[in-house]
User: Which sequence fits this backbone?
C-alpha cells in the first residue's frame, strides 16, 4: 500500500471530447478568459458567463469518462491510499467511480449564490435573473473558482501532497498556480504524465508522455 497524491488537469478529459484550455483550439483560444473566468467579467456581463458555463455543462453531460478516468477510479478504490485532486470542473472522475474527488477549481454541476454564499446542485441551464433558492436574490453563479479567487481545499491538498510517497500530475500544462506549484510540496517521488513536457516538467523525477487513455491505464496496471 502506498500514499499517492494525483493532480489532474484538462488533458485527462481531452479524449472524452471536453476541450482543454491552452492547446491548439483550446477554450482560451476561443474565449477571453477575462470575460468568462473572472469575477470582473461576471460583474460586467453575467449573461455571457452563464452562457459559457451552460455550454460547458451541456458538453459535460454528453461526455463519458475515458480509460484514464476509469483507471484512476480503479486505483482510487484499490488498497493504495489515493488523494485525487483535480483542476477540472467536469464530473468525469466521479462518474468513473471515484468516490472522493477534491475539486480545487469547483464544479460545473454546482451553483453558488454570490449574495448569501449558499451552494446547491446546479440546474443544466442557469440564467442571471434566476433567484437564489435560499435568499431569492438574482445573484446566482456557477460554483467555479475564477482567476483571482482562492481555490478550494488547499490545506487538505497541501497535506495530501506532502504526505504522499508519490505525487503524480496528469494532463496539466502547469501554467496555473497554486496547482502548478504543488510539485514543490512533494516529499516523495514525482511523476508527470502528459501529452508533452509541461511548464514544470523539470520539477518531476519521472515522465511518461503520450495520450492519457494509453499512458494512465498502463501506469495504473503496473501499480495494482
Ligand atoms: N492526454 C494527455 N495529456 C493531454 C492530452 C491527452 N489526450 N491532450 C492534451 N493534453 C495535455 C496538454 O499537453 C496540456 O499540457 O493537457 C494539458 C492541458 O493544459 P491546459 O489546457 O492548460 O489545462 P489545465 O492545465 O488543466 O489548466 C489549468 O487553467 O484555465 C484554468 O481553471 C482552468 O483548471 C484550468 C487551469
Assistant:
Amino acid at each position: 500500500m502506498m500514499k499517492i497524491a494525483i493532480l489532474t488537469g484538462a488533458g485527462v478529459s481531452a479524449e472524452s471530447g471536453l476541450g482543454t484550455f491552452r492547446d491548439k483550439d483550446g477554450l482560451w483560444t476561443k474565449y477571453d478568459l477575462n470575460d468568462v473566468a473572472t469575477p470582473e467579467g461576471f460583474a460586467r456581463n453575467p449573461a455571457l458567463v452563464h452562457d459559457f458555463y451552460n455550454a460547458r455543462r451541456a458538453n459535460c453531460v454528453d461526455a463519458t469518462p475515458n480509460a484514464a478516468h476509469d483507471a484512476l477510479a480503479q486505483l482510487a478504490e484499490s488498497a493504495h491510499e489515493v488523494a485525487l485532486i483535480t483542476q477540472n470542473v467536469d464530473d468525469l472522475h466521479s462518474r468513473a467511480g471515484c468516490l472522493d474527488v477534491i475539486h480545487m477549481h469547483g464544479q460545473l454541476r454546482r451553483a453558488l449564490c454570490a449574495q448569501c454564499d449558499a451552494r446547491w446542485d446546479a440546474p443544466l441551464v442557469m440564467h442571471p435573473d434566476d433567484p437564489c433558492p435560499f435568499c431569492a436574490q438574482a445573484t446566482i453563479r456557477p460554483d467555479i473558482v475564477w482567476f483571482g479567487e482562492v481555490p478550494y481545499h488547499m490545506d487538505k491538498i497541501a497535506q495530501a501532497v506532502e504526505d504522499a510517497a508519490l505525487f503524480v500530475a496528469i494532463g496539466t500544462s502547469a501554467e496555473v498556480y497554486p496547482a502548478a506549484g504543488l510539485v514543490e510540496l512533494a516529499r516523495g517521488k514525482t511523476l508527470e504524465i502528459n501529452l508533452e513536457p509541461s511548464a514544470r516538467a523539470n520539477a518531476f523525477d519521472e515522465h511518461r508522455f503520450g495520450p492519457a487513455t494509453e499512458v494512465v491505464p498502463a501506469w495504473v496496471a503496473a501499480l495494482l
Notes: The mean pLDDT is 97. The chain has two domains: 1-18+65-105+151-224, 19-62+108-144.
